[in-house]
Amino acid sequence: MSTAEHITHFTVQYGNLGANEVQKLRLFPNSLTGSAFSWYITLRPTSVQSWREMEDHFHAQFYRTEPMVFVADLAKMCQFLDESVEKFVSRFKIARYKCLTMLSENEFTKMALGGLHFEVRKRFAGQKFTDLGQLVAQATSYELLLREEEDLKSSSLGIYYKPPAPTIMGSRAPKVADFADYEDCDEDYEISITEIISGKPYVCKALAQMAEQSGSAPAKTFRDRDAKNKYTYDTTKAELVFDHVGRTVG
């Protein structure tokens, strides 16, 4: 609030007392707060003799010249990179109040829409809004969807490889993943590769076939429990098998 607005508001608030300069001088401190009140109490008792002198002292102490805002300035306003639609429109409104050129609400809304991010402008291009409030409501909803979409993209690294194409009885060779497709990708991918080499087969003594006491067939207890699952090796020695494979490969 400017100094002129403060004095006008004070005069209107006290109504009929506004015509009495003595009463205005006595009541004026009641309208001051913060630094303005601190300034008032530091005045010398005899430094102000009339209401006119009080106005002059008040303007000289707190009057600040605010820069003029033109229509061209409003048209150049743009939404900051990390600024929400709501905050940008609030900043646009403050600047609009300083503009002395009278335009319709529709014209101001068009200028505000032109200052939003490209994705939002593209979404609402050609759409008419009755006022800035409607623009904020719809643009904010779309902004939240864009933010959610961006979060989903950043939370997933995508597919690491291409699955091989299905083959029918050797009609064609399986399709090998082409990692050249990922050379131009900006994201870093971690790819594990295993090489299969030929050589002498390894024998692990822990992989002994389980059989009944007679040694003629696998244990019936496993076969009878589930006909589909037949355990032909001693599963209690899985750790031994794992250790053997680790030592062999290493």
> How does the overall form come out from the CA principal axes?
elongated
What is the level-2 CATH architecture name of the domain at 71-155? Orthogonal Bundle
> Which structural class fits the helix and strand makeup?
mainly alpha
Instruction: List how many beta strands DSSP finds.
Output: 0
Going by CATH, the homologous superfamily of the domain at 71-155 would be Retrovirus capsid C-terminal domain
Average pLDDT confidence is 76
Helix content: 40-55%
The major pleated sheet works out as:
none
CATH third-level topology of the domain at 71-155:
Non-ribosomal Peptide Synthetase Peptidyl Carrier Protein, Chain A
Order of helices and strands: HHHHHHHHHHH
What fraction of residues sit in β-strands? under 5%
The CATH class of the domain at 71-155 is identified as: Mainly Alpha
Q: Give the helix tally.
A: 11
Question: What ranges have pLDDT less than 50 throughout 5 or more consecutive residues?
Answer: 167-171
Rg computed from alpha carbons, rounded to a whole number of angstroms: 41 Å
Report how far the terminal alpha carbons are from each other.
Answer: 79 Å
